[in-house]
Amino acid sequence: MKLDNLKNPQKYTDLYVFDFGDYTSIGFTTEEVGELFESERYKNGKAYRIYRAHPDGTMELKGVNRETFFLESGMFFHSDNEFTARKNFKNIVKLAVANIPPCRAKVHLAKYPDDKFITAIIYPAEYDNQISKWLLDGNYKTEGFAEGGTQCTQKYYDSQCEILKRHQLFGKTEKISRTGEELLSNLKKAVQR
Fold first, then answer.
1. Which domain holds residue 140?
2. pLDDT of 68-116, one tens digit each?
């Protein structure tokens, strides 16, 4: 795959290269790639996340499965009591106020039928690494058992627990993503940003 030389390649870290088949373009957000994959015309394209970009213009890319853009993932913090679960919930929301999360996410405080509690943060699966880093960088701490991933998210939904409290988090990338005609009118550009 041939990519154009970039000025300041480091600013493309965590963005995507999209291979349309007859050409490639660099600089798409996760939301934009998701929209491309949703369209009938570009559903067979290939997406690569830029994990590292070096000053000399070389980049480390990782291919991302199309299906990943249609899955939800999550992190689930289990508690034996409501007080601890509420504290976990409050700390995630507090972290989001102090440091905007990397993507849109929802936070739930829920109660299982067996009187156990859970604090859940659910987000698009493609953001697993960024959410983990965001929680670590924010020094988020919890008590009790924690688990995560797409299968845990499905298990949570299937449990039909009672949601006691919910909060919507808005992410950094939402401010820069283009949608619809704005996105589609610029696809032929080699560099999107």
1. 70-174
2. 888 999 999 999 999 999 999 999 999 999 999 988 899 999 999 888 9
Q: What amino acid occupies position 48? A: Y
The answer to whether residue 190 sits within a structural domain is: no
Total domains in the fold of the chain: 2
Task: Say if residue 104 is in the same domain as residue 56.
Answer: no
Question: Do residues 146 and 63 share a domain?
Answer: no
List CB contacts of 56: < 8 A, sequence separation 6 or more: none
Given pLDDT bands bounded at 50, 70 and 90, which one contains residue 175? low
Whole-prediction pTM:
0.76
Q: What span, in angstroms and rounded, lies between the C-alpha atoms of 103 and 125? A: 10
93 and 32 within one domain: no
